[in-house]
Automatic annotation (TrEMBL), chain A:
InterPro entries for this protein: Bact_solute-bd_prot1, SBP
Protein name from the UniProt record: Multiple sugar transport system substrate-binding protein
Signal peptide location: 1-21
Key words, A-Z: Signal, Sugar transport, Transport
UniProtKB/TrEMBL annotation, chain B:
Family, per entry: Belongs to the binding-protein-dependent transport system permease family.
InterPro entries with a match to the protein in the record: ABC_transporter_permease, MetI-like, MetI-like_sf
Alphabetic keyword roster: Cell membrane, Membrane, Sugar transport, Transmembrane, Transmembrane helix, Transport
A GO BP annotation: transmembrane transport
Pfam families in alphabetical order: BPD_transp_1
ABC transmembrane type-1 domain segment(s): 86-298
Ubl conjugation as UniProt keyword: no
GO cellular component entries: plasma membrane
Organism: Kribbella voronezhensis
Protein name in UniProt: Multiple sugar transport system permease protein
UniProt-listed Gene3D superfamilies: MetI-like (1.10.3720.10)
Length: 458, 307
């Protein structure tokens, strides 16, 4: 039969097609060939988060640093990988699966523990002893990349949450921008006055969607002295007086004070955009928010200030930041070369990311109190001095935040952070969109869901 | 192909040698087909098979994957958002059928009845389809803004108090349906219009001679004549709307209170936010099975249509 023979031919083609596809996709990701060379053997490493071409000043600085580093270490070749943003959760797993993950890859604090637990990063414990600068790095910052006594990465940036506010709006509303709110009662008062400036002005903005609501719940909770999970990490601990206070405070501002605007379900970019437009008075955020608002959302450095998170005196603040981890398939030589690069570019005062003299010459903003990797140690003091010497932004706008650091402890994100944040989005969105939201029930429900999440594979 | 036309028009079977020669003559065509098949295999079938396998595995993409049986399914079943996701997906599809299915058909009938500016209006109706989906969705984000949004300003003009649109559990899902309908209106309308234009004009003329008005003409001529395409479109609409993702992802983040979390959105959360590809795969497989039922009906209907 004609149709039968056609079908047979088609079947053959189909099988051949599938075979080809399977052959192209099924090749094993064999570990990179183990190098047996000595200390000066040639090694090439791929490094993520090269500034994109759309950011020519930072790009030029990076390239200059690569050249300088390669002159110091002629056996090492850096292959930079340009990406914006530096990490995209959507492609991280795909890059690992496809074998295209960089040898030295960029990561946010939020994802570090998840990556360690999934064994998606190399254990660099045997090699970190060579990184002398690490001795002075703040223990809590180093702790972000640790699991027990093992180390899995190197920090690049560190900060903790504060209160970002628009100084210009403070002045317009008759408030003193040099005395930002320290308590939530003061935030309420300031927010009401800013909202009273007219339609479109929002006193205080808060997230409640895309897991960002849960993230900011944690930030406010920590500031009040609360915890997201129990000490053993096996059960939820946010159904507490502190957790209740976080939601009650938001509910009051949203519905009694009318100082949070009517638009809710805000996600990461929304508050940045509102800040950049000059219509938002305050939000929870770290100094990097000001950087983002300035770089990407048309805000001006001069208009913003940062203070500590309200009610955080003597307590803890959710820390954030980023750093680098290593491909689990990287050879020891690549790890050693990568560590040399990271020490040079991320950890040395006056070099790489801390080359404030160059940044000033390039017309880039200098003076934000981040990154804070070293605290009050000698390199930390050196970095602060350099930052002050070459400052191009009004550093005094960040004084309330800097002053508070002496009494605030960095607190890490909880285990299974994204899952817990997703659960708490429900509670956050409820109090911000429903006047009759039952806070006790919301917290109890969220805690019950969180317990199940934490119990799984814990 | 000219050689083929020289053959007798109807031949039910070919001798073995002739079949081989026929294949030989069509090698170029098979070559082209082969390229398409490889592309399908690589970009469509392989990911689908991989996804099915993933749903029964635990993997970190570094070590060899572990077979975990139905563990991933148990995990997503136990998630409180699972029930919400299916209910919301079903509600979204249902609402999309009520709103998004009827509107393009009515619009097509109206366009078909028009005597002037037909081409211009067809272009205007199709225009939203040309807009990238993300742009369309973000445009509606502004329309829905509870403060300065276009929709509330219009309501204000009629003295109606503002609505919360996306910020209320009672209106969020229907707000997403409106966006989806608007974005897909043009395609549906054009397909219906093509079907309407294939109806012989004599049928309408006879109906008119018998004294049938517009509604009777639509009911007694248009609907029976387009019955099959209406059914096919219905099934396609169900299959498309059950995969809704971009609207909740960009507009509501699944909120408020999980009111707009859909199966596809939850799948994304599992895979990319929680790093649990097994859970995401399990959800994907469940959705695929449901959609396959509708696809099977669709194939059956289109086959009947062809015969």
């Amino acid at each position: 039969m004609r149709t039968t023979s056609h079908r047979r031919a088609l079947s053959l083609l189909l099988v051949a097609g599938l075979g080809l596809a399977a052959a192209s996709c099924g090749s094993d990701d064999k570990p990179a060939a183990q190098s047996s060379g000595g200390a000066d053997a040639k090694v090439t490493i791929t490094v993520g988060c090269e500034p994109p071409k759309s950011n020519p000043k930072e790009r030029a600085g990076w390239e200059e640093d690569v050249t300088a580093f390669q002159q110091l270490h002629p056996n090492i070749t850096i292959e930079s990988k340009d990406a914006f943003p530096c990490i995209n959760p959507d492609t991280f797993q795909a890059k690992l699966a496809g074998g295209t993950q960089e040898d030295v890859f960029y990561v946010y604090y939020t994802d570090v523990q998840k990556i360690i637990k999934a064994k998606q990063a190399a254990d660099i414990t045997p090699y970190v002893g060579s990184v002398k600068a690490l001795a002075d790095v703040r223990p809590d910052v180093k702790g972000v990349f640790a699991d027990g006594d093992k180390t899995y990465g190197i920090p690049r940036n560190n900060y903790n949450m504060g209160l970002v506010y628009n100084r210009k709006l403070f002045t317009q509303a008759g408030l003193n921008p040099d005395a930002p709110p320290k308590t939530w009662a003061e935030v309420h008062e300031a927010a009401k006055k800013i909202s009273a400036l007219g339609a479109g002005y929002t006193g205080f903005g808060e997230y409640s969607a895309g897991n960002t609501g849960g993230w900011h719940f944690a930030a406010s909770l920590y500031a009040r002295g609360g915890s997201m999970v129990s000490d053993d990490g096996k059960s939820a601990a946010f159904n507490s007086p502190e957790g209740k206070a976080v939601l009650e405070n938001l509910k009051q501002m949203r519905w009694d004070d009318n100082s949070m605007g009517t638009k809710q379900l805000l996600q990461w970019e929304d508050l940045m955009r509102m800040m950049g437009s000059g219509k938002l008075g305050m939000m929870i955020g770290a100094p990097d928010v000001v950087q983002s608002v300035n770089n990407d959302f048309q805000g001006k450095f001069d208009d913003y200030g940062v203070a500590a998170v309200p009610e955080s005196e003597g307590k803890a603040s959710l820390s954030g930041g980023d750093g680098y981890m290593f491909n689990p398939k990287a050879t020891p030589e690549k790890i050693k070369a990568g560590l040399l690069w990271l020490e040079f570019h991320e950890l040395t005062p006056g070099k790489g990311q801390f080359n404030y003299e160059r940044a000033k010459a390039q017309g880039r903003p200098v003076g934000l109190p981040i990154p804070d990797l070293y605290g009050d140690s000698a390199p930390g003091k050196q970095i602060v001095a350099l930052r002050k010497q070459f400052a191009t932004v009004p550093v005094e706008h960040f004084t309330p935040y800097v002053t508070a650091q002496a009494s605030i402890t960095n607190k890490l994100e909880p285990p299974k952070a994204q899952e817990l944040y997703a659960v708490l989005d429900v509670a956050m969105s409820a109090v911000l969109t429903r006047k009759d939201a039952d806070i006790d029930k919301l917290l109890a429900d969220a805690a019950s869901k969180a317990d199940k999440i934490l119990a799984k594979n814990s | 192909m000219a050689v083929l036309t020289a053959k007798p028009p109807v031949r039910r079977s070919l001798p073995q040698g002739a079949a081989r020669r026929a294949v030989g003559r069509n090698l170029t065509a098979y070559g082209f087909l082969c390229g398409a098949l490889i592309c399908f295999a690589f970009f469509s079938w392989y990911p689908m098979i991989r996804e099915i396998i993933l749903s029964f595995q635990s993997t970190n993409f570094v070590d060899p994957a572990q077979w975990v049986g139905f563990d991933n399914f148990r995990t997503v079943f136990a998630d409180s958002a699972f029930r919400s996701a299916w209910l919301n997906t079903a509600a979204f599809s249902g609402l999309a059928l009520v709103v998004g299915y009827a509107v393009p058909f009515v619009l097509a009938v109206v366009l078909n009845e028009l005597r002037h500016a037909k081409a211009y209006l067809r272009f205007v109706v199709y225009l939203p389809v040309m807009l990238p989906p993300a742009v369309g969705v973000l445009l509606f984000k502004w329309f829905y803004d509870p403060g300065a949004g276009l929709f509330n300003q219009i309501l204000d003009g009629f003295g109606i108090p503002p609505l919360s649109w996306l910020d209320s559990t009672s209106t969020a899902l229907i707000s997403l349906v409106i966006v989806s309908t608007w974005m897909n209106l043009g395609t549906g309308t054009l397909i219906y219009l093509a079907a309407l234009q294939s109806i012989p004009g004599e049928l309408y003329e006879s109906a008119e001679l018998d004294g049938a008005g517009l509604f009777r003409r639509v009911w007694h001529v248009t609907v029976p004549q387009t019955k099959l395409i209406l059914l096919v479109m219905l099934l396609l609409q169900v299959v498309a709307t059950m995969q809704v993702f971009i609207e909740p992802y960009l507009l509501t983040g699944g909120g408020p209170e999980n009111a707009t979390v859909t199966v596809a959105y939850l799948m994304y959360q599992y895979a990319f936010n929680f790093g649990d590809f097994g859970g995401g795969g399990a959800l994907g497989l469940m959705l695929m099975v449901v959609l396959m039922v509708f696809s099977a009906i669709y194939l059956r209907v289109s086959r009947d249509n062809q015969s």
